User: Fold this.
Amino acid sequence: MELSKVMHTRRSVREYINKPVEQEKLREVISAAQLAPSWKNSQVSRYYVVTGEEKLAEVKNALSPYNQKNMADAPALIVTAIVLNRSGYEKDGTPTNELGNGWGFYDCGLQSMNLLLKATELGLSTLVMGIRDNEKIKKILGIPETEAVVSVIGVGYSNAEPAMPKRKEIDDIAKFF
Assistant:
C-alpha cells in the first residue's frame, strides 16, 4: 500500500472484532517503529506487547472507563514507554536543553506513528490512549522505575469504519516565511 494511502486511511478505531492478531504482525509493527529517528540514536522507546488473556484483562482495567469500553474486544495492547534521562541528555547526565526527557517522549511519538502506519498497511486498526493508570500498568507488566509509560495502543481488526474528522486548513496551522 502506498504511504499516502496509508496516511489517508488510518483511523482511530474504538470497535474491534474479537480475533487474535498474529504475533508476526505485532513484530512487524514494532520493527517499523524502530526505524524512526531518535535523539543521538538513543533508541529509548520500549514496547510491552500484551496478548495473554489474564494480562490483557488487567491492563484493560488500568484504562479509563471510556477506553475500557473502547477496548472490550481488542485482542492486543501495546504499552509504549521510554527509558528516562537518556534521550535529550549529555553523557554526564545533564539535560542538553530545557526539554530534557521531552525528547524521549518526542522520539516515542515518532516511533508510534511508524507503528500506526505499519499496522494500517497490514490491515490492522489501532487506538492510541493516554488516559491510563501509569502505576498500575507498571506493576502489572513489571516496568522498571527507570522507565515512564507513554501510551497504550489498542491493536486489532476493526469492526467499524470511522470517517476522517475534518482537518484544519494549512494556513490555520502553518506560517511560511
Helices lie at 3-9, 23-34, 53-61, 65-70, 102-121, 134-141, 170-173.
